[in-house]
């Protein structure tokens, strides 16, 4: 244990400033500062507001992580940082911070892919990942289905959203229902009292014709509009909107598509491990539905606990740890922040 | 004492090592690259390079000076986060200096000068310095026309900085060729008293001068006709 590498991870791709520390697969610290409240009145993450918050938060968050893990920077073997994808200005703060730490402490730095990190974080909870695996990554910024043959080197995108991210749909429907931002947890809560079969909302890109070109892609824009139409029609008729039923039916439609496509990917490739990550993976209905349906197909679902599903530094440290263990060389000191970093690139 | 200086408030990305002693401030090594789009890529390797140039390790540094801007936000933060994180690891104080001072202070000899750097959106970040190099107006962000008017009121006779070059016609002042960008040694000179006194570390708060572009969410737009 003690001879396993001690890895620090830095995450700033959206509105969370995260610093995590792991030793091998053991989580030692997961410090987080969030600017989510500053974005609430804008109904979505404002990039410049997020970037300013990262600059203010990075040093104190690092301090907390080091204290929590009871280590010093000198003890660290390598520093991993999210270099993309994400908000350009926000990523740049984390990447520059990682380099500042790396240069000052004379440590190697790994610029890593945020989505691969969402997969890697599960190893902190469930141990080494069986490969190949299928991963479903869903959040306010991304909705992707991927095949992981070698988390250190080879990740293949199977599909992604062609319009809104799943988490974005949650935010927009929440706003429609008068629920606060971010919408995910509020929809989840309301839905518990609602009937998921009350309203038949559309399942995007699941019709036979869509499966040809978009078998593993997602679309949530049509669903969002359908919910808006339904709610408005009620309001215009002067009727009360059954918030719990709308929330439950909307959530059911999202989860149905996500789980259906993820399991389709498992079945068609004969892969029996499904990892679910990203903020939407904290949704209780998604977790329950995935477990239930996967069991029928002999697929094992791995979902980290909710706190590790949302963006954090531990996930970046977990991926860094995996890369170090796999003998992957560090990045160069001129590594960029790449807001559109392709999924196929695990480390820049 | 060896001091690291960084500034990323303009298209120039600067890292330097200077020696601060009781006698003065001496430049030891400097890297400056003009590329407005690559601050994040360029700065850390330049810091590494200037340390190597003087055969020093990071632990040999006694303090860090950073240009606080004003400057376009994304690039500006690179220098500040670099300085702050390095200061944290090394346990050495960080000091902030208004980046425009690093242009205006060294050239203001005898006559007042207007310093202008490019703020994009057809505006400049500007400040005015008296003949002794003291800032007497700014830093502000305005159109070049407004900056020119304020400069005239303050009897400015010459302008300097990349913004002054860019908007020379509107400013209507003769433009000094150098420095176009904040001078690392000048930034160190402006922090030298604090460095020598071992003054407490300062939080490196950027001089943004502009609020973030963001509009509060309005009510939901109906989808039904
Ligand atoms: Zn994420």
What this model shows, in words?
The complex is a heterodimer of chains A (348) and B (225). Chain A has helices at residues 36-40, 47-69, 88-105, 114-120, 123-126, 166-176, 183-191, 208-214, 221-236, 243-269, 284-296, 306-309, 313-325, and strands spanning 6-11, 16-23, 26-34, 78-84, 109-113, 133-138, 143-150, 154-160, 273-277, 300-302. With 348 residues, chain A is an alpha/beta fold. In chain A, α7 crosses α10, α9 (221-236) runs antiparallel to α10 (243-269) and α10 (243-269) runs parallel beside α11 (284-296). Chain B has 225 residues and is an alpha/beta fold. Chain B is 32% helix and 26% strand. Chain B is globular and about 60 Å long. At the A-B interface, α2, α3 and α9 of A face α1 and α2 of B. Residues 114, 118, 139, 141, 278, 311 of chain A line the site of zinc ion. Residues 114, 118, 139, 141, 278, 311 of chain A line the site of zinc ion (ZN).
Short description:
Chain A is α/β, with parallel strands linked by helices.
What key attributes describe this structure?
heterodimer, A: 348 residues, alpha/beta, five-stranded mixed β-sheet, 13 helices, 45% helix, B: 225 residues, four-stranded mixed β-sheet, 32% helix, 26% strand, globular, binds zinc ion, ATPase_NBD (chain B), T6A_TsaB (chain B), Gcp-like_dom (chain B)
